[in-house]
Amino acid sequence: xxxxxxxxxxxxxxxxxxxxxxxxxxxxxxxxxxxxxxxxxxxxxxxxxxxxxxxxxxxxxxxxxxxxxxxxxxxxxxxxxxxxxxxxxxxxxxxxxxxxxxxxxxxxxxxxxxxxxxxxxxxxxxxxxxxxxxxxxxxxxxxxxxxxxxxxxxxxxxxxxxxxxxxxxxxxxxxxxxxxxxxxxxxxxxxxxxxxxxxxxxxxxxxxxxxxxxxxxxxxxxxxxxxxxxxxxxxxxxxxxxxxxxxxxxxxxxxxxxxxxxxxxxxxxxxxxxxxxxxxxxxxxxxxxxxxxxxxxxxxxxx
Length: 303
Description:
- The chain is 30% helix and 26% strand.
- It has helices spanning 13-26, 38-47, 64-73, 91-100, 112-125, 129-134, 147-153, 183-187, 280-295; strands at residues 5-9, 31-35, 52-55, 82-86, 104-107, 176-177, 196-201, 204-213, 217-223, 234-241, 246-259, 268-275.
- Helix 2 (38-47) packs parallel to helix 3 (64-73).
């Protein structure tokens, strides 16, 4: 009996690793291949048979929606389960994907349970789930919190050194810096706007203030809540640019977390959010935000 095969498509290697790690832990009998964009996936699908595609939406060369549309035009791929795994969770995007023939939808950031549930549902509809479970000799394990860490370290233990207090940290080179964010300012940040955004984490959504920005990362300030974010958590940062209401959904992970104030019970946290997108449009969007900030004289010369 041949293995159930899945194709994971995403331009961010970090996300591909998370998805593959999750699938391998739940379904050891599954064959998994990956592709960095829709064009590469299209070439694989043209020469190999897959039982399921898990695909990002926004990618260079060919988007996930374009790949989905192409698949539904091919006789051999019309009935193949195609699940969109994307930060585009708006109603209009979901409707657009449904109209194109999507089988399921997983919003980033996702939990292991959410991803596995969609995979099971998609494979069950085409009669492949029983085959997959029959080839899985290991009992399915519950989701664990360190998937992101294991994806980067290959399952080996990793030690994260404590970061220096936020107030003592030197500004990153090339970052666009706004004036220091005080607690009352951060508390008033809900609702978005210039210098503000929304951070989507696996355990919920938090409003944030954009303290600094570069092409590789953003420095965010958020209010401390009961469930603390974790280093290497995958996340999505929603940014809205001024009066144009143009919104960018930036995929990434939490690289560092420190107290914003120099005290253990700090009410505010400072997060370093690293981008993983390779999409040219998103990089252009960030560049325009940086340029706008430079024009407003928020840029620190020599930083």
